[in-house]
Amino acid sequence: FKGGDTCEYLLSSGRFLGEKVWQPHSCMMHKYKNSEAKNCLIDKHVVFIGDSRIRQLFYSFIKLINPQVKEEGIKHGNIPFEDKSASIKVDFLWYPEVNGSMRQRIKSWTEGSVAKPHIIVVGAATWSIKIHNGSNEALAQYKTNITSIAPLLEKLAISSDVYWVLQDPVYEDMLSESRKMITNEKIDAYNEAAVRILNSSSRNSKAKVKVFSVSKLIAQETIMKSADGLHLPESSRDTNAMILMNVYCNKIMKPIDGSCCQPQPPLTLIQKIAFCFFTLSIIGYLIISLIHRNNYRKNKSCTDLESGEEKKPAISTPNVSTLEMLLHCFCKLGLIMTYFYLCDRADLFMKENKFYTHSSFFIPIIYILVLGVFYTENTKETKVLNREQTDEWKGWMQLVILIYHISGASTFLPVYMHIRVLVAAYLFQTGYGHFSYFWIKGDFGVYRVCQVLFRLNFLVVVLCIVMDRPYQFYYFVPLVTVWFMIIYATLAVWPQIVQKKANGNCLWHFGLLLKLICLLTCIYFLSYSQGAFEKIFSFWPLSKCFELNGNVYEWWFRWKLDRYVVFHGMLFAFIYLALQKHQMISEGKGDPLFSNRVSNVLLFISIVSFLTYSIWASSCKNKTECNELHPSVSVVQILAFILIRNIPGYIRSVYSSFFAWFGKISLELFICQYHIWLAADTKGILVLIPGYPMFNVLVSTFIFVCVAHEISQITNDLAQIVVPKDNSTLLKRLLCIAGFFSGLHFFSAMQDQSRH
After folding, report:
1. CB 337 within 8 Å of CB 323
2. Cβ–Cβ contacts within 10 Å for residue 739, how many?
3. Nearest to residue 24, comparing CAs of 39, 5, 1, 41?
């Protein structure tokens, strides 16, 4: 850790990821769109002063505002640019040498009431080397001129952003005869003089002229692609312009994936309260632990000196009280949340942009698949989608999704489409699992509902408080929560139809099918009526949960993307349980699910369907069009996988304990990755160990998995305390929870008012 000045890192250091993606040291660079650049620079005046290299940077900069601009200005003259819609002025002033003329122009901005530019970008040297044939006298004069200009730049830097651009290296072999005197040795001497003079003239670090030295590093990698050996290729100058935009705009626009030059956000009122609560929990737990330890010491067995026999204590060690367990859980949770905050809200750890390569995605996939196969064990039961098998399914899917996120594979459309199927498969299991429970058990009690809702939402609610994020930000949890409530409402509403009732009269099966048809009709209507959907979820208090950036569009998009798959899961569970009840399938150990002939036909159809979907997904050209088809066709690959996994008896009788272990904590893994494995709310990668990417991933992954496992244990422990089986006690706890959320809403309203 070298300090938190990410602006300094952005301007001075970094490396290329691939050919064109620049990665600043320690922080993430945002790729600004034209609309964002205009919003940032509205009513601003930007000036570029220098030679042809600065003119190149000027053109790349204004193309971020208006991509239609063509480089048609006078080569050796001033070039104005204005965007009237946003009142932005950007000027290029032709001053190829650091001399009296440049000094006079800069001085004019420091005098009287003349309007000063908001951003000033200055740089020149190659013309001085060329005109004076690289003489030492020219270098001495250059030093003198910069020395006279430096105080003026410092004065401007008090109210404006001033950048001195160091000279990029040249590709000497490609230089024309008239430029042969411009050598890298001379350029280094001029740069060294500029840095030494500008740094020594600084009196106030807050009013310091910023040295733009990163372009030199970029040029070292790309100058050999130059057309003339002197000017940078277009991709390199575009990178320099984007860096300049990040330096100025990140503190104004505050993009999530632009951590460079962003100040640490201040603690909110709710975060301060959470900090106090966790601190008190830790102190309380330590006090209780010390008291118990002292009591244990007093009552521990002592040796009788005369007989040499050990006497047992008269008082046995007391059982752990509910209060102590609560404090113990909150103590651990407080330490874990501190780590979350330090990783993704403080400036303590570095963050880097993602960069996708096929090897970064597929090699880890192959590695975990080999590990998964290595840890193969026999299942306790051989039913279709038994507990071990569903845990295994969740586990390998979660690991693939994690690799997909850290490798940035969303940019590769075939991978994106297959990952969409994995997310759909999670929701399919939601429909299958909850339907099966309610159908078989017939338990529609409040206890069951509260247990599920608590386990699903506990971690997300804590993260919303600690990380200052809306509930909808962790979109998957609201999704499974809402679908659980829809499943519950569908089956619990009168008439309640369960397996026990349906066994007595087959007509009840048709009644359940009617319920499912009604559910499908509602889903279909809402998916094609965005207005009705948004009205439902725009009512308070639903709006507080499902709004993101002031509207519920993101929630509608997420819900619509997998709108049918939960229904498919419920329908599959109904058909499977009906077949099982009528003994139309064989689930014995090693037995095929159906007769050999039927099993072989279904297996063949499943394999063909699975491959057909993969071929279609791999041939996708447009993400929007493929997303439109996805809700209707994703079930094909899901059902194909289930049949391939369960029809052969020998495959159904084994499972991977490696994948199943991860499956048991899949929800915690999915949520925790946002802040302690990835960074900047999943937009980047957390860097605990800079300079060693593979070692960093190993260390951060180990911590991440341990934390997810620990949070899973904490959630299970707290669920037993917060959601007791006794109805009267449960009602009291629900009133307490309602009070907690009322208080949270009150403090949130106070927070919003103070922000406005």
Report:
1. no
2. 10
3. 5
Q: Residue 709 burial by CB count (10 A; 0-12/13-18/19+): exposed, middle or buried?
A: middle
Contact of 189 with 140, CB cutoff 8 Å: no
Contact in structure between 163 and 52 (CB atoms under 8 Å): no
Q: Report the pLDDT averaged over residues 99-110.
A: 94
DSSP 551: B
Instruction: Give the pairing of strands 161-165 and 210-212.
Output: parallel
Do 237 and 22 contact (CB within 8 A), yes or no? Answer: no
* Residue written as token pair 């890298």: 184
Residue 459, φ and ψ in degrees, nearest 5: -65, -40
In contact, 83 and 65? CB cutoff 8 Å? yes
Rounded mean pLDDT of 491-507?
A: 90
| Chain position carrying tokens 């051989």 | 382
d(CA 387, CA 393): 10
What is the phi/psi pair of residue 553, to 5°? -60, -45
291-294: which pairs have CB atoms within 8 A and are 24 or more residues apart?
A: 292/317, 292/318, 292/324
In terms of pLDDT, which residue wins out, 582 or 719?
A: 719
Amino acid identity for residue 642 in this structure: I
The count of residues in the chain is 756
- Closest by CA to 174, choosing from 227, 134, 125, is 227
CB-neighbour burial class of residue 744 (10 A; exposed 0-12, middle 13-18, buried 19+): middle
Q: Output the CA–CA distances (angstroms, integers) from residue 328 to 87, 281, 283, 322, 495, in the order listed.
A: 58, 8, 10, 10, 44
Cα 281 to Cα 733: distance, rounded to the nearest angstrom: 19
Name 222's Cβ contacts closer than 8 Å, sequence gap at least 6: 232, 233, 235, 236
- Residues 574/516, Cβ–Cβ less than 8 Å: yes
Burial of 390 (0-12, 13-18, 19+ CB in 10 A): middle
Check if the beta carbon of residue 235 is closer than 8 Å to that of residue 20: yes
CA separation for the pair 125, 167 (Å, rounded): 7
Structure tokens at 689: 């160990």
Q: Are 299 and 313 in contact (CB under 8 A)?
A: yes
Q: Which two tokens stand for residue 617?
A: 């997904």
Mean local confidence (pLDDT), 102-129: 92
Number of H helices, E strands in the chain: 29, 15
- For range 426-452, the mean pLDDT: 96
DSSP 659-724: HHHHHTTHHHHHHHHHHHTEETTTTEEEESSTT-HHHHHHHHHHHHHHHHHHHHHHHHHHHHHHS-
3-class DSSP state of 21: strand
Give the type of residue at 79. I
Residue appearing with tokens 């071929």: 615
Q: What is the pLDDT of residues 534-559, one digit of tens each?
A: 999 988 888 888 988 778 999 999 99
Helix 136-156 to helix 100-110 angle, to the nearest 10 degrees?
Answer: 10
> For residue 665, which phi and psi values (nearest 5 degrees)?
-120, 25
Query: For residue 548, what is the DSSP state?
Result: B
Kind and range of the H or E element at 376? strand 376-378
CA distance linking residue 564 with residue 520, whole number of Å: 8
Active site residues: 52, 228, 231
292-296 own/partner pairs: CB under 8 Å, 24+ apart: 292/317, 292/318, 292/324
Per residue in 180-201, pLDDT tens?
999 999 999 999 999 999 987 6
CA angle 592, 584, 441 (to 5 degrees): 105
Q: Residue with structure tokens 């001195």?
A: 164
Calculate ∠ Cα 478-484-489, nearest 5°: 125
Cross-strand partners of 551:
548
Positive/negative CA dihedral, 50, 55, 56, 60: positive
